[in-house]
């Protein structure tokens, strides 16, 4: 006699894994693209509480500013590389059906004599409408991207964004803001460094500066210096001289209550080296606190490695090794001026600032703690 078929046989088994995430509603999506001197980066995200959830991303080293220091123009090869990257971004935006977006270009397009023409070429060939933003807006967007990393105990805040073609510094006084409100007060700067009267306690922007020296442009200025250590020292002192007009430059800053937030590939690479990571891990790097002494130890290690040693070091990576010493020279100059026990590493920047600004303006972020 054949065995009887068990009751329920043939039914679908209960899933043991979580179901695949639902495709986000395109009407909830925002996009931000940052075309810098060295890289093209894009994020597509949807609001989630007081933060956002990344749906898709893109990052490519396009070296748009290659040769700009010598010629004053964007080269044909760098523009071709960049347009290829922009086509990939366009495909991602189309696939996700994103309608809310801001696509911006920074220092390389600001400085190049053919920058405006290149923006028009991008639109003809990809359909994407890039806008060249001014240094103040670039600095402001970098600041608000770092709001979640601001300590409630911070009285004086210096936000540093080391880019490929420029470096933005913003000094903010938070002493008049209640401790718990300090990160939120930074976020409110999306309306401008000197917003209109508000019922909320305001963060005071003491001063800001955009130095036309980034990791690529500073490296190119001293490319002819052959000695590794001499080139590094010259880059660091040259950058410090460019800070002479920055208001807090001459002030001695107490370490207590003072925080630097650094956002750049340089800062995240130094953090990865400090942690001894063989493979980069954003969850371990973003928000990490480092002291001036720890950063100085990493930079001294880079110098001891020499060019060939840095090229082989997995913590630095092939994309970053050519730029790490110019970035480190900038970082060392800043820490010589303002030593701190609290430099917060931010693996975030202009893209995140663009997203926060769009979402805050639309009122889709919850007004809760970060």
TrEMBL record:
Gene3D superfamilies: 3.30.420.40, Exopolyphosphatase. Domain 2. Residues 1-25 are annotated as: Disordered. One of its GO terms (molecular function) is pyrophosphatase activity. Residues 44-359 form the Ppx/GppA phosphatase N-terminal domain. This is Ppx/GppA family phosphatase. It comes from Pseudooceanicola sediminis.
């Amino acid at each position: 006699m054949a065995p009887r078929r068990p009751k329920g046989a043939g039914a679908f088994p209960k899933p043991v894994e979580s179901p695949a995430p639902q495709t986000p509603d395109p009407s909830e999506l925002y996009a931000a693209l940052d075309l810098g001197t060295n890289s093209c980066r894009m994020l597509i995200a949807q609001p989630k509480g007081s933060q956002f959830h990344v749906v898709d991303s893109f990052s490519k080293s396009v070296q748009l500013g290659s040769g700009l220091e010598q010629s004053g123009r964007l080269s044909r090869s760098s523009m071709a590389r960049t347009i290829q990257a922009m086509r990939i971004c366009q495909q991602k935006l189309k696939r996700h059906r994103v309608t809310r977006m801001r696509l911006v270009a920074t220092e390389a397009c600001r400085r190049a004599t053919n920058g405006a023409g290149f923006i028009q070429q991008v639109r003809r060939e990809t359909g994407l409408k890039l806008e060249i933003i001014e240094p103040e807006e670039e600095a402001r967007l970098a600041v608000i991207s770092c709001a979640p990393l601001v300590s409630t105990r911070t009285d004086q805040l210096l936000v540093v964004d080391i880019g490929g073609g420029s470096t933005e510094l913003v000094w903010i006084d938070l002493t008049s803001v209640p401790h718990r409100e300090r990160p939120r007060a930074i976020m409110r700067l999306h309306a401008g460094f000197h917003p209109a009267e508000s019922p909320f306690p305001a963060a005071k922007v003491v001063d800001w500066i955009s130095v036309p020296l980034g990791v690529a442009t500073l490296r190119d200025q001293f490319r002819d210096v052959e000695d590794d250590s001499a080139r590094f020292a010259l880059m660091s002192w040259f950058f410090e001289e460019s800070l002479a007009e920055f208001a807090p430059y001459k002030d001695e800053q107490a370490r207590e209550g003072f925080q630097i937030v650094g956002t750049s590939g340089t800062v995240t690479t130094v953090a990865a080296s400090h942690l001894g990571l063989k493979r980069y891990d954003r969850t371990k790097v973003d928000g990490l606190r480092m002291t001036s002494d720890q950063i100085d130890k990493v930079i001294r290690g880079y110098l001891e490695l020499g060019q060939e040693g840095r090229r082989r070091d997995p913590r630095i990576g092939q994309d970053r090794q050519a730029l790490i010493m110019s970035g480190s020279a900038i970082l060392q100059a800043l820490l010589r001026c303002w030593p701190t026990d609290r430099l917060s590493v931010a693996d975030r920047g202009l893209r995140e600032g663009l997203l926060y600004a769009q979402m805050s303006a639309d009122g889709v972020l919850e007004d809760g703690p970060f």
